[in-house]
Give the backbone structure.
Amino acid sequence: MRILDLYLSRLFILRFLLILVAGSFFILTLDIMEVSNDIAEIEAESELQATLQYALHRFPSFLSQLLPIATLLAALLTLAEMQRHRELVSLWNSGLSPIRIMRGLLPVGCLLAVLQFTLDDQVLPETTVQLREWSIGEFGETQNLAGADGKIWLRSGNDYLRMPEKNLGDDQLQDITLFRRDDRGLLYERLDARSAQRTTNGWLLREVTRQGEAQTTAEKLPVYLWDGQIDPEGLRLLARPPRELSLSQLASLISSKSYGQRSPQVYKTWMNARITQSLTPILLIFLAVAWGQDYRRTGTLTRLMIGGVAIGFTFFVINGTSIALSEVGTMPSWMGAWAPFTAMACLIGFLVVRREASEPIQLRSERSSSGNAA
């Protein structure tokens, strides 16, 4: 059976690489043509070098987006090719179960899951940073965290901090206002500082004007130590879409409650989605095998491809919609990421069990017919 596993894996990998690489290069070519004017503004020795730099940083994002689609198409094409040569018919008739074929392709699925996770969690968070520095195409659009006055509001514990957006990500802040609240949420102190320097114990405010709740006049202080936890690196992360953040960065924003700028629900949703998206290639391989067992005649190849693609793309749409609904708090964060994945797993299980359960009935019927004929 090891020979069969290697044969199935080889057929699948060849088709997967062809679809993934060719599709990614095709989309990359179209993207370069669209943003060619922006690429010309990249500092490089030549326009060719600038284009290569952009392609090197942009290519991983296309690989990540196309990997699930390539997995589904490659699995369906592998089964269709085996069906066309009647190899799959021989396997089914020999008593080989779909679960056995799934087990044979499981190592390949695990490799694709690792590749998907590596692209999403390690490669993309690095490459998108450079793309946003270049401000090319869709990466030129950054989330506006400030209001009309150019100030942003951040939260640390019970306190609120107002600062200019231009200080975002700096270790030293300028012209900040700190509103301190008690455990009941009531304001008891306001601090206006000319500057603030990050220290190991918090932030050291300088040239401070302090106004307490019971004070009628403001108090001038040369320095004031505020124990708030505002991480400059975390502030930079707020301006980036959650998809471009690693698990450690998502966890950091969740622990800080995203400094009051966003609901932690958004980052909890994407933390769960990062796990399910990494496991999706395995799920899609199993879907192709479970769906293909119902098409054991060569005349049904078209239905095999159309049906498998329709189910797969329906899953992609529902999964994206579920994540979007979870981001806005319509459903719990874990449900938005895991509900479509679990539903697809149940569908695959149903397809496998239905066929396995019907086989003994069919065999008994055939034997009865043969006995009556005799």
